[in-house]
Specification:
Length: 246
């Protein structure tokens, strides 16, 4: 894994946005895997700025988001779809037909997961997958467990994860869905390149274990060690437990 460390979250966001820009210049019709949460906010801010300045063209690109809550629809203020509309989609020239999202209110959620997996395959797979990391080491919504699912699947969210997501539901834990849909570990690992972002000392322990620890289903991010093209974009806090050469 290649590790890049930045002084501020804005610097980190600029670097990840530049990485996305490079990808789209090399391959204008790239398939991008997108993440939500607080960590990518600076990246999306910079991508909006780059687009407004005419520095990046999303029109031939395709996107797939990693995950979505079950039981709430796209218009719900806590949905990841709404987050993406506000933070990126409404401000750039992505073709609406090439924006892909899991539908958390589909009639049959298992069929919905199969549909999504097939659509990713049909698009030729993901070229560049952006990831955040949960405080418990989850990626997407692949929660630590005895086993992990390879393909897109339904997930029971851990209490910690629900608490971490409560802000988007007015801070009211009882309003945070208990279930979600997520790309699986195999779906993520099939991406041609992966960028994992982490900000803050709160993430330092799981970042260190993901990089140096054993590969274990108890820390889903540790499976990234099996991938040949992973870059970590960290701030000082998140990188603070990684031993760097003097
Ligand atoms: C959620 C998302 C993850 C994200 C994580 C971290 O659980 N499903 O994809 O990486 O939050 O969020 P944050 O960046 O706010 O710490």
């Amino acid at each position: 894994m290649r590790v890049h460390v930045f002084e501020t979250s804005d610097d980190l966001g600029r670097a990840v946005a530049a990485r996305v820009g490079d990808e789209l210049r090399r391959n204008p019709s790239a398939v991008l895997g997108l993440a939500t949460g607080g960590t990518p906010l600076a990246t999306y801010g910079e991508l909006r700025r780059m687009h407004a300045a005419g520095l990046i063209d999303f029109s031939p690109a395709t996107t797939f988001n990693l995950d979505e809550f079950a039981g709430i629809d796209a218009s719900h203020s806590g949905s990841f779809r709404r987050y993406m509309d506000v933070k990126l989609f409404d401000s750039v020239n992505l073709d609406a037909h090439r924006i892909h999202f899991l539908n958390g209110v589909a009639d049959d959620l298992d069929v919905e997961c199969e549909r999504y997996e097939k659509e990713i395959e049909h698009a030729g797979g993901i070229d560049l997958q952006m990831l955040g990391i949960g405080a418990n080491g989850h990626i997407g919504f692949n929660e630590p467990d005895e086993t992990l699912a390879a393909r897109t699947h339904r997930v029971q969210l851990h209490d910690q994860t629900r608490r971490d997501n409560a802000a988007a539901f007015g801070g009211d834990l009882s309003r945070v869905p208990t279930e979600a849909l997520s790309m699986g570990m195999g779906t993520i690992l099939k991406s041609r390149a992966i960028v994992l972002m982490a900000i803050g000392a709160r993430k330092a322990r799981c970042v260190e274990r993901a990089v140096n620890g054993p590969i274990t289903t108890r820390l889903p991010a540790s499976f990234l060690q099996l991938h040949r093209d992973v870059e970590l974009f960290l701030d000082r806090g998140a990188s603070s437990l990684l031993v760097r050469p003097a």
